[in-house]
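Sample pair:
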Amino acid sequence: MMKKIINLKRNKKGFTLIELLASIAVIVVIGSVIAGIITSSLRGSNKTNTIEAIRQNGNYALSQISKNIEYAQVFNGLSRNGTNYDTSCQFSIAPTPTPVITPYNFIKITGLNNNIIEYKCDTSASPVVFTVNNNGNENAIIDTNSVNLTSCSITCTQTNETDVPIIGIGFTLGPKKQNGLVENSTPPITFQTSVTMRNYAK
């Protein structure tokens, strides 16, 4: 009878503290590895989605601007202040002219449907402003709800007075905001193009 009681006591023996700590350590390590894999996957997915949103916004805006300028019926001019407009930009008068790139803040054209369209780039504002005014209706060119506009530019290049001005449009877009699931290394993307107006001086 005494032997049976001793055997029962031995069978009821539980885990030691060391065994419990070892089990907890193994579970923590496995959990950390799994959490790392999930976080890395989400981070990569969010980075891809962010870059895709930037590219879609930038390419769409650039194509619309360049198409409007290229096929404009009338070139109303370029301006730095939105009041005084020049229909040609600065150029070199040396015997061998070299192109002079002139920065502007406004460009105004008359579109195919006779609408007056004015593009405004204001880098002195915070945040940077890049808008289009179509017959009195001013709207942002870039959807700043999903991307961040960090810079914009309107330039004009003309070698001499008889040449057609080449209008340069550029802007830089980045992620709307950095958070724990978006890589801090997501770089801003620059979009730029040069447009020659088909109906200039016609």
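Strands lie at 74-79, 100-104, 106-110, 116-122, 129-134, 137-140, 147-158, 166-175, 189-196.
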